[in-house]
Specification:
repeat, single chain, immunoglobulin domain, eight-stranded mixed β-sheet, 17 strands, about 230 residues, CAVP-target protein-like protein, Ig-like_dom, axon guidance receptor activity
Length: about 230
């Protein structure tokens, strides 16, 4: 039986690649690498994960807001956005954004009070589904959408001046007569209900005639409107 020829190691290498121990070690290293790669692939394949949660966003009326979320998912997921439970379609008002490697976003354009609400993202693939949610908080300068109307009325009657208002944060509301704040009592008073404010004057008398002002104010601005009451 002829002896097995042993090749010399490559220049500069002190490892004998024909040494059975070296070959056995190489096999183990290669096997370990394949196992590591397989485990890595298994970790990547699975239900989506939220890497960075959505955060509440303040939207100024007329501007745009953006909700960002970092996700991890393989295979690639289906992304859907919802507002108060209703799905939002990608279009001019709501834009779905996808940025490498793992950022998805929703851009809400031309902000109005109707955009106030809870926004939810759904990330779904064949392994499962993940959700996250945040609020868009709308800030709108205080505004009088429709001011009170001038009134001519007989003494002894009840009169009401009504103004339609808006604003977010909710504005402070006040009424004045001839430049002085209205002193409320059982006969003269005002209330605020939703998007309107009403000044009521009962048992009208001559002294109630004058120029009335309604004003609204919040952290973003103020507005005012005037009306006149003439007592006949």
């Amino acid at each position: 039986m002829s002896a097995k020829k042993v090749l010399p190691p490559p220049p500069g290498c002190n490892i004998d690649i024909n040494d059975p121990k070296v070959q056995d070690a190489a096999i183990k290293i290669q096997s370990s690498y394949r196992g590591h790669r397989s485990r890595k692939e298994m970790r990547e394949k699975g239900p989506p994960k939220i890497l960075k949660e959505l955060k509440d966003v303040v939207l100024i009326e007329g501007s745009a807001a953006r909700l960002d979320c970092r996700v991890s998912a393989f295979p690639d997921p289906l992304i859907r956005w919802f507002k108060d439970g209703q799905e939002l379609k990608d279009g001019p008002k709501y834009r779905y954004m996808f940025e490498d490697p793992d950022v998805v976003a929703l851009v809400v354009r031309d902000g109005t009070l109707s955009d106030l609400g809870k926004y939810t993202i759904s990330i779904k693939n064949t392994f499962g589904e993940a959700y996250d949610a945040a609020k868009i908080i709308i800030e709108v300068p205080a505004k009088i959408k429709k001011g009170p109307e001038n009134i001519k009325i007989r003494a002894g009657k009840t009169v009401q001046l009504v103004a339609m208002i808006s604003g977010e944060p909710e504005p402070d509301v006040g009424w004045a007569k001839d430049g002085l704040d209205v002193d409320e009592d059982n006969r003269v008073f005002y209330d605020i209900q939703g998007d309107s404010t009403t000044l009521t004057i009962k048992n009208l008398c001559a002294e109630d005639a004058g120029r009335y002002e309604v004003f609204v104010e919040n952290s973003l601005g103020m507005d005012q409107s005037f009306a006149r009451i003439d007592v006949l």
